[in-house]
What we know:
Structural class: mainly alpha
Low-confidence stretches: none
Shape: flat
Distance between the termini: 74 Å
Number of helices: 7
Largest sheet: 2 strands, antiparallel
Order of helices and strands: HEHHEHHHH
Mean pLDDT: 86
Strand content: under 5%
Radius of gyration: 29 Å
Strand order of the largest sheet: 1-2
Amino acid sequence: MVFVEIGNRRNRENDRHDMIVTPFMHKLSAYFRFIMWSRGRIRYPKELNQIEQEFKLIIDKLSKYGGKIIMSGGDYLTDSFTANELYNIAFDINNLWYWHDKMKPCNLRWESNDFDGNYIDQELREINPVFVELAHDAALVPKVSSEFYVHIYQPIEYETFRHEAFLRQYAIHTRFVSFAVTFILVLLCCMLFIQIPSIVLKIATVIIVILLLISLLLLGIDIKKQIHLRNKMIELTDKFKKRIKRSINRKAKWLSSNLKAKKDIV
Length: 266
């Protein structure tokens, strides 16, 4: 029963996440296609300064995602990127606006080609219909990037990290309950074929009761509190490890200095 309920909660979490993130991934795919399209129209100076190099590097990096999605003929899925990968992608998107803003004067040229203008207007409309009315030029790239980062990515940024934390916690639940069920089944099998001393049975029974209580508590305690407590435990463990490491290092230095002093005396 506990095992099934954990699976149901995980499925509900996935459904909730898909409902929130699927529209975002649709817009992200449209943005990648827009960057891929823009890459073929931006013309850089023969000699690039540092700002232009940074801008070009990000354009080339993001356009690779657009190339993949164009070849696949669809959109990226909700599980195509981890939360950290999305964060890094969004960081690059925001930097397009940042580096373009520093181009004073801007030496980027735009090679106009309107034969596929309707195609790119569809992608811009997915991000924000306002951009369809603007001129297609190099300045449009940072405008679209700023809009995407602030109004499309940032509202779902917390959701991506929250979802991964929830799934990690449900995975811990599943492993623990699987261990508990396996332990109980093994014990029952042993009772059928092996004569077990009563003291061992009593100890095993206590362990089974504890495992079942913890399994029920996993369902009773709020998942956010569980994640908070787990993070706190990890933080305390890391601090303890650092203290032990510092203590060992101090002891090693003390022993090293003593050995060196004895050698000097000899």
